[in-house]
Specification:
By secondary structure, the chain is α/β, with parallel strands linked by helices. It contains 7 helices and 9 strands; from the N terminus they run αββαβββαβαβαββαα.
Length: 275
């Protein structure tokens, strides 16, 4: 898959505006990465502590940064599509720009001391996520201080219900709303007029449908905003952007899905880092 060459301009913008909020601890080393794609480690209410089976390696080095035949085994819960999805998504940015992205996967738990170094958090399979009250409070602090959470790859009413329940622990007084097509997040760089349903690898390559759960098949982008209207949480519901990033080099996976996933992911990134 070839990304639009205008992505280069986007990444120049990202480099210029900077990639850490003033409310977060700055990384002072001039040679340090300017952006970390940070995967959130959480407890999965289906699998137990830290939510994975088997336990993934947190010290992964991407052997084919940016693409290629890199499809290692992955865990469950927060580690779905890890580490290949992280390598492919960041690699797509790195090879089109001079921005210093962290070249390898970066995962942190909510209670880890390093959490506030990383304004942008990505949580996958949140239909099984469980937050304790302490974790919910810390995530709330992170988001109110300028952080951003992208939740991805959850399907159907049961998984949606679990995500809503966990977010109510974080923000009891803030509703989760469907974002209209006029919302700025759809127009930060790419103009996205329609939300495409991004299927998992199996449905993308061989399935007869793109959805996973028959009780709700419509893709939507949901959000939670602060008092000033800044989007703090964006959830790509009934879609799997992570699979589209990970399998962009797989011959059977349609380019149109990976293309949309990159456009949506980059829009989320630039919104998060400029608000």
């Amino acid at each position: 898959m070839k990304l639009c060459t205008t992505v280069l301009a986007l990444l120049i913008i990202l480099a210029c505006v900077g990639l850490s909020s003033g409310s977060f601890a700055a990384i002072s080393d001039d040679d340090a990465p300017e952006f970390y794609f940070t995967r959130l480690i959480y407890t999965d209410n289906r699998w137990g502590p830290r939510g994975t089976w088997p336990k993934p390696d947190l010290e992964w080095i991407c052997p084919e940064f940016g693409g290629g035949n890199f499809f290692p085994g992955q865990g469950s819960g927060w580690a779905i599509d890890y580490p290949a999805g992280d390598c492919k998504f960041m690699g797509g940015i790195a090879r089109l720009s001079t921005i210093r992205v962290h070249p390898n996967p970066n995962a942190t738990a909510i209670m880890d001391d390093d959490l506030f170094r990383f304004p942008f958090l990505y949580a996958v399979a949140v239909g099984g996520m469980y937050l304790s009250e302490t974790e919910a409070g810390r995530l709330r602090e992170h988001l109110l201080r300028g952080g951003f959470l992208h939740a991805d790859d959850f399907w159907g009413l049961r998984q949606l219900g679990n995500f809503v329940e966990q977010m109510r622990k974080v923000f009891p007084d803030r509703p989760i709303q469907q974002l209209p097509p006029t919302h700025e997040v759809f127009h930060t760089f790419f103009d996205i007029d329609d939300v495409m349903q991004v299927p998992n690898r199996s449905n993308g390559c061989w399935g007869r449908q793109t959805w996973e759960q028959p009780d709700d098949i419509t893709p939507r982008v949901l959000g939670i905003s602060d008092d000033n209207g800044r989007l703090m949480v964006a959830a790509t519901y009934n879609s799997d952007l992570g699979d589209a990033w990970e399998y962009m080099d797989l011959a059977c996976y349609p380019e149109k899905y990976s293309g949309f996933a990159y456009r949506m992911g980059l829009n989320l990134m630039i919104y998060a880092m400029t608000h």
